[in-house]
Amino acid sequence: MIEIVAATKSYGAAKALCGVDLTIGAGEAFGLLGPNGAGKSTLVRLLATLSRPDGGHLRVGGHDTVRAASRVKRLLGVVFQENNLDRDLSARQNLLFHAGLYGLGRAADRVAAMIGRLGLSGAADRPVGQLSGGQRRRLVIGRALLPEPRVLLLDEPTTGLDPAVRRELWDLIRHIRDGGCTIVLTTHYVEEAEALCGRIGIIRQGRMAALGTPDELVARFGGPRLEDVVVRLGAGGGA
Ligand SMILES: Nc1ncnc2c1ncn2[C@@H]1O[C@H](COP(=O)(O)OP(=O)(O)OP(=O)(O)O)[C@@H](O)[C@H]1O
Ligand SMILES: [Mg+2]
To answer: Whose Cα sits closest to atom 29 in ligand 1?
Structure first.
């Protein structure tokens, strides 16, 4: 479903990605870990067709993210690292606006169903500025799901949330995964990647330092826990 070949991206003199190769199958949930500035969000932006690679190519559902960006967008739901909601509109109005952008039919019904699924019924008509961080995160995930994407990109979906809200979001993401959606998730919470993702990539300074299931990574790089592998590789050792 996702094919990334030798992807490079620089911002001025800063090399954000230095030749990343990655293949993710349909229905797979893939976790991207790595220290601040490693290139995770850059990779998400390239997949989301928001920026172009300097070299290499990325394909989603067989479509090139540069030459067939509009076809790629039709397959994607994206949750960016920063919430980009209109704070003056209510949760429902934000969803309706998004449904309108996508030209989705039966928008009011679709939005009402999504609000129920997100557990936001009690808060749906309050301005987003009055919602908690966890409610806002639910809302941006729900918004990304409205067009029923085949692939969902989640950039740090639970950062800054309390453990109970994080677990609620895990349940939501598991449900999406179990419905067959392909998921790419970045996170700094190792246990989150372990809970949700079959395979994990550890990215460091724009390179994929390690790739595999949690068990494979621990076996290859030594543990005892996956978190130890992430810390070691993030600091520059092991690979
Ligand atoms: N628009 C930009 N302009 C200039 N430099 C950028 C831009 N976006 C990213 N960078 C740089 O590219 C590198 C990778 O950034 P990126 O946001 O992909 O990291 P990240 O792994 O998502 O980090 P974090 O865990 O902090 O979110 C960093 O050195 C960053 O400063
Ligand atoms: Mg980031």
So the answer is: 37
Q: Using the mean position of ligand 2's atoms as its centre, give its distance from the Cα of residue 109 in Å.
A: 34
Residue 231: which of 213, 215, 216, 218 has the closest Cα?
218
The bound ligand whose nearest atom lies closest to the alpha carbon of 11 is: 1
Give the CATH architecture of domain 2-84+149-234. Answer: 3-Layer(aba) Sandwich (3.40)
Mean pLDDT by 10 residues, the chain (239 residues): 98 96 97 95 96 98 97 95 89 95 93 93 94 92 93 94 90 94 96 96 95 94 90 74
Q: Residue with the nearest Cα to atom 8 of ligand 1?
A: 42
The domain ranges of the chain are 2-84+149-234
CA 125 to ligand 1 center in whole angstroms: 35
Cα distances (Å, whole numbers) of residue 79 to 59, 136, 206: 19, 11, 21
Q: What is the pTM of this model?
A: 0.94
